[in-house]
């Protein structure tokens, strides 16, 4: 028994000392990557996933997809056989090929013309690294003065959620907030020209009014949307649909529904010469005000008329708002139409033409285009002193 124990111990000792630990080079896995890249670029003999498009099937390696795509990682976990078929007819084939090039080779070039389709593919595949890198570059481009172009791009394929003001985009909420914040800066520093304002797409306006940004900035960007609706002479249905998606962070749901209803009833119908805007009122209230572009044939109205007022930062109060009646709206509509038809006459310099400003401000060019003259500065001072 003693001899057996001695032999056994000696054998175990020899087993341990005779082991060989081998460590590969730092580039050990490069040969595997090169093999997969070579197979993908060539005959694809070892590909086991088939991506189906309308007129083509792309073959890829399941291990590579699972390593880079969170979407395919989950799909492949549920696969029971050796091969896997995926229907991707709803995605752009060329965009999928670009994303696969990035997965296999780590480098790809996206063009602005097709970037929206590319973003949809990246979002579907769930490639966080690529998504973050593109969004950072888009925000950087927006900061260089191309904010509207970038917003229009990322909202091209905007999807709305049925029975909800929420929307789905191929970029993150954080990136949307960054872009809308940049738009706010451009507007508040008078860097948003009239032509640039008109170039904002409907989808971008929907995104702007539903974006999650601080209330202090949200008032201004909603005013941008109100001016856009006015300048575009949007029909009632479209204007209503846009404003139905409006959000305000400090409001409860009940307050928000009431606020939307009041704003829509004030804005619609979109009437020439009648400007609606939001204004920060006293005691942190949010006022919906309506101003009129004046001219010599009508009594001047030097102050904006407050239609409705809502408390801000008060989660317990629903607020009390005066919703304009049908008679009031009809009266303002007919009055505004009359003013527009008569605007060909020369306006008198004794009236204040600055009171149709939104938070974005109608410039002197805007007023001239609308047929209104700018009040001389000295006359303005005289009226202010009175």
From TrEMBL:
Lineage: Eukaryota, Metazoa, Ecdysozoa, Nematoda, Chromadorea
Top-level lineage group: Eukaryota
Compositional bias per record (Low complexity), positions renumbered to this chain: 341-350
Pfam families the record matches: BTB
UniProt cross-references to PANTHER family, sorted A to Z: BTB DOMAIN-CONTAINING PROTEIN (PTHR22670:SF1), BTB DOMAIN-CONTAINING PROTEIN-RELATED-RELATED (PTHR22670)
Gene3D superfamilies: Potassium Channel Kv1.1, Chain A
InterPro entries for this protein: BTB/POZ_dom (IPR000210), SKP1/BTB/POZ_sf (IPR011333)
Residue ranges, annotated region (Disordered): 331-353
BTB domain mapped to chain residues: 47-112
Protein name: BTB domain-containing protein
SMART domains for this protein: BTB
